[in-house]
Write a structure and sequence with these properties.
Helix content is 28%, strand content 35%. By secondary structure, it is α+β, with helices and mostly antiparallel strands. Strand 8 and strand 9 form a beta hairpin. The N and C termini lie far apart (50 Å).
């Protein structure tokens, strides 16, 4: 994002395409250090005789871009704005502020967050159905107005995308972008997880990844799964039987493909809204393949990983402590 383009957007002197570029960039990067820097640099140019008007214009600007000022890091930026608004020295024409304050937004961005321990269903403006797993966030425009239907997600979703060949459906998740026409798939892309996974149950998707200036593309068809390592940018392709696949949206389906125990328990914490503490570093790094389809409880799942009785599970309140047999005195 270029500061010149951002200023042009604020001053209402850019094209519709440029406006959409700015809005989409901020939807995807609103909580990044780069967004902090750009917004603060912009605000430092917004001083008028009436500081309240400057703050009001800037607040409307943040609202239009979907920025929530009561969240970190925007809470920090907003506090700086409140503190320094009266002493900024570079003038901005009042007429420009008036134009901005009265301008009708091209799109209204909706944001939905699902807390730990819950699953939610959302129907998008094009009738696409999205099931959201615990700890997931989705941001989408209301309505879709461009040649493509683009949404932003963080977490895990199961999507049943409404077919519309003239308006491809695009999901952006960090450095991972999925383009579909009409299909059903599961996408897991939590920010704190080391990898992103997509399992295609029906249809065809194009996947684009970009990390460390390395761009990769892949096409997936029915029964194929892609695992993207965010640290190394490595891609692993796996296969499964679509007719036997059961997602979390189908009543408790849960899949782990060659994952570290610490990453598995991190996901279980989100699903059941509990704490799981692994006291053995070696155990935390053990890898497992697991498949749950019958709405198992967390105790049943943990006991499945302990089928050989190689570790000890101790429950205290809503927390589970797991230790190896040699560490049971901790």
């Amino acid at each position: 994002m270029d500061i010149k383009l951002l200023k042009a957007y604020f001053n209402n002197c850019c094209t519709i395409k440029q406006m959409q570029t700015v809005e989409e960039w901020f939807v995807e990067n609103a909580y990044s250090p780069e967004a902090d820097r750009l917004l603060w640099e912009l605000y430092q140019t917004l001083s008028v005789e009436d500081p309240k008007m400057a703050r009001k214009a800037f607040n409307r600007f943040c609202d239009k871009l979907g920025i929530r000022k009561n969240r970190i890091p925007w809470k920090v930026v907003y506090l700086k704005v409140q503190r320094f608004a009266a002493i900024l020295a570079i003038p901005l024409l009042l007429t420009t502020l008036a134009l901005f304050l009265t301008r009708t937004p091209l799109q209204e961005w909706q944001e939905l967050y699902v807390p730990y321990g819950h699953i939610e269903k959302v129907v998008l403006p094009d009738s696409t159905v999205i099931w959201m797993n615990a700890g997931s966030r989705i941001t989408y425009p209301q309505p879709f107005q461009t040649k493509h239907r683009k949404i932003f997600i963080e977490g895990e979703i199961f999507a049943d995308v409404k077919a519309d060949p003239r308006h491809p459906f695009i999901i952006s998740a960090q450095d991972f972008e999925v383009t579909v026409v009409g299909t059903r798939f599961n996408l897991k892309a939590y920010a704190e997880d080391p990898s992103i996974e997509i399992a295609l149950v029906e249809g065809l998707v194009e996947v684009n990844t970009k990390s460390r200036n390395i761009s990769q593309q892949a096409s997936l068809k029915n029964g194929e799964m892609m695992v993207y390592n965010k640290e190394s940018a490595d891609v692993e392709l796996l296969t499964f039987t679509p007719s036997q696949y059961k997602s979390f949206a189908d009543g408790g389906g849960l899949h782990f493909f060659n994952q570290k125990f610490q990453d598995i328990t991190a996901h279980l914490q989100r699903l059941f809204d509990v704490r799981i503490v692994i006291l053995d570093n070696q155990l935390a790094k053990e890898r497992y393949h697991a498949y749950f389809t019958n709405n198992e409880t967390i105790e049943q799942m943990l006991n499945t990983f302990n089928v050989d009785n190689s570790f000890i599970i101790r429950k205290e309140g809503d927390a589970y402590f797991i230790s190896g047999k040699t560490n049971n005195n901790r």
